[in-house]
Amino acid sequence: MMPSGNVNISNGQGQAQLDIKILGNTNDMKVSVYLEKEPNGQWKLIEMQK
């Protein structure tokens, strides 16, 4: 399964919004995440909703 959403990067800075389906043993769950990246930095989780 591939996540869906958007990723935007410009001059090393970026934002991403992804919708991810998580498969569990008894239930599946959909999660939405919002990430940000500073120039020369790593992606950081800003918000997560289920």
Give average pLDDT, whole number: 93
User: Structural class, please?
Assistant: mainly beta
Low-confidence stretches: none
Oligomer kind: single chain
Radius of gyration: 13 Å
How many helices?
0
Q: Can you give the helix content as a percent range?
A: under 10%
Shape: elongated
Q: What portion of residues belong to β-strands? A: over 45%
The total beta strand count reads 4
Can you list the strand order of the major beta sheet? 1-2-3-4
Order of helices and strands: EEEE
Largest sheet features: 4 strands, antiparallel
Note the gap between the termini: 17 Å
Keywords:
single chain; 50 residues; mainly beta; four-stranded antiparallel sheet; 4 strands; 70% strand; elongated
Descriptive overview:
The chain has 50 residues and is an all-beta fold. The chain has no helices and 4 strands. A hairpin with a 2-residue loop joins strand 1 (4-10) and strand 2. The chain is elongated, with a radius of gyration of 13 Å.
Quick recap of the structure?
This protein has 50 residues and is mainly β.
Secondary structure layout plus pairing:
Elements: E1 4-10, E2 13-23, E3 28-37, E4 43-49
